[in-house]
UniProtKB/TrEMBL annotation:
It comes from Thioploca ingrica. InterPro entries: G_ERA_dom (IPR030388), GTP-bd (IPR006073), GTPase_Era-like (IPR005662), KH_dom-like_a/b (IPR015946), KH_dom_type_2 (IPR004044), KH_sf_prok-type (IPR009019), P-loop_NTPase (IPR027417), Small_GTP-bd (IPR005225). Monomer. Residues 153-155 are annotated as: G5. Its main location: cytoplasm. This is GTPase Era. It comes from the Bacteria. Residues 61-64 are annotated as: G3.
Length: 302
């Protein structure tokens, strides 16, 4: 590796659920992006900044690219993913081992217009029982598009990530760091707190309420050695509100406890968290409602 300072932007791109956010957290050694078994977990472009030795890698986590169900939320997600690829120096294209789908074809089509170097990362290799299947799969995908390198990885277990990151650094331009060495994201604690609450909701209720809920922080302030946070969980229908609250408030209570613990770890302090559930009809299909709830185009330029 060269001794000159490298610094640049690296977009993590791929269909929903391939493990982009898991990879980002693993590379940073810290959880800043939420993950779940449900597709379309990530909704916002988010930077993960890693300063190692004299280099700075600015990872860009993106919502998964997908074709179907084109309501306002889906359009927003695709726009966010597309915009995140603009101006980057390297793309890490993630696919899942032995799990090629129509949506991967869509990503491939989007990548046709991309000029910057693309590294192919074949994720979730820990799931592969018969390792002899890896090489043919790897060749098959690499034949679909010219890539500068291919890495079979496990974002969950951390396999092959040092090698992947070494390659990324080599491809980054020689530049001074953009961010201070101690900064790890461009997002506020307020934003990350809302995301952690949403993660607990998706993980608990993903099957019942795919992605038709969102979280808005109403109040976030320090007082008496506590961070006091109150947040509204927006759903689309009264029936969904009943599900989120659960029997005698059991679901909301569990979500609140899990989220509070994660937020306390993130801010390294005590948190007092209050959650409210409110109904806003069809917010997922309504461009104005989306903007009000923080899904705005301004978000894309951050
Ligand atoms: N077995 C295994 N599972 C993984 C690995 N990486 C990610 N996963 C799982 O795959 C699921 C999706 O991971 P995410 O990181 O949320 O995927 P994503 O690409 O960010 O998804 P979207 O934000 O919806 O586009 C989660 O359940 C992860 O735990 C891996 O290396 N091995
Ligand atoms: Mg994600």
């Amino acid at each position: 590796m060269s001794t000159e300072k490298h610094c640049g932007y690296v977009a993590l791109v791929g269909r929903p659920n391939v493990g982009k956010s898991t990879l980002l957290n693993r590379l940073l050694g810290q959880k800043i992006s939420i993950t779940s078994r449900k597709p379309q977990t990530t909704r916002h472009r988010l930077l993960g900044i890693k300063t190692v030795d004299h280099h700075q890698i600015i990872y860009v986590d993106t919502p998964g690219l997908h074709q179907h169900k084109l309501n306002a939320m889906n359009r927003y997600l695709n726009r966010a993913a597309m915009n995140s690829m603009e101006g980057v120096d390297v793309i890490v294209w993630l696919v899942e081992v032995l799990a090629w789908t129509e949506e991967d074809n869509y990503v491939l089509k989007v990548l046709e217009h991309i000029q910057v170097p693309v590294i192919l990362a074949i994720n979730k290799v820990d799931k592969l029982k018969d390792k002899t299947l890896l090489l043919p799969y790897l060749q098959e995908i690499a034949n679909k598009r010219l890539v500068v390198d291919v890495f079979p990885i496990s974002a969950r277990k951390g396999n092959n990530l040092v090698e992947l990151e070494g390659k990324i650094i080599n491809l980054l331009p020689i530049n001074n760091p953009v961010f201070p060495a101690e900064q790890i994201t461009d997002r506020s604690e307020r934003f990350l707190a809302a995301e952690l609450i949403r993660e607990k909701l998706i993980r608990r209720l993903g099957a019942e309420l795919p992605y038709r809920l969102t979280v808005q922080i109403e109040h976030f302030a320090n007082q008496d050695h506590f961070t006091h946070i109150s947040a509204i969980i927006w759903v689309e229908r009264p029936g969904q509100k009943v599900i989120v609250i659960g029997k005698q408030g059991s679901v909301l209570k569990a979500v609140g406890e899990e989220a509070r613990k994660d937020i306390e770890t993130m801010i390294a302090g005590k948190v007092f968290l209050q959650l409210w559930v409110k109904v806003k009809e069809k917010w997922c299909d309504d461009e104005n409602a989306l903007r009000q709830l923080g899904y705005s185009n301004d978000d894309l330029t951050k």
